Prior knowledge:
The chain has one domain (5-194): NADH Oxidase (3-Layer(aba) Sandwich). It is built from seven helices and eight strands. It has helices at residues 5-12, 21-37, 66-72, 88-99, 101-132, 152-160, 162-166, and strands at residues 41-51, 55-58, 61-64, 77-84, 136-137, 169-170, 176-177, 181-189. α2 packs across α5. The longest helix has 32 residues, at 101-132. The chain is elongated and about 50 Å long. The mean pLDDT is 90.
Amino acid sequence: MRVDRKETLRYLGYRGQELDSQTSQLMEEIATELEAASSPKSIYLEYDCQVSCTQIKLGGLFITSRNLAVNLKGCERAVLLAATIGRAADLMIRKYSISNMAKAAIVQAAGAAGIESYVDQVEDSIRQDAIKRGWYLRPRFSPGYGDFALDHQKDIFQILECEKRIGLTLTEGNLMMPSKSVTAIIGLTTEERKSCQMEKCSLCAKTDCEFRQEGE
């Protein structure tokens, strides 16, 4: 796993401002430490997918979500995915929250950039395998986006056996532990023109795209 420095700055709120040498050095120290200490793991399974206006059936999972249905429209298959970079970021945040709040803030941003980078790697592996079979990927869509209820975290965790397979647990409030973790659904379509080839929605100028992820 590599922590993308530019993405770390984006999560820190930098938008083209000049970066001072002290912050730059701190960011490099934190990114290097996090890369060395992280233990990324993932699990994903592919299922048949049936979609109507607001209803999605994915294997034995039933979901009501108009936003997810739009994302998966035309998909006959879909992947359930869970990934984490491990406890390192949480432990570092706890440590630096006591001694150095600036470092703690950078760890938060670097951890967010790190899990995104890792999930991008996992998604690329899924994409390469899918293309060999004539499928193309839709943008990944996570519980909590739009009207895709966060409660479905429980279903995904149960189906993928997240705790057993990758050490990922869920709190009563549906928050993942370790915190730098992601669950998502990725639709598979045979129609290349309806797939998205952009790495991130934030890099795409098409702000009215029906597949654009919330917060991007």
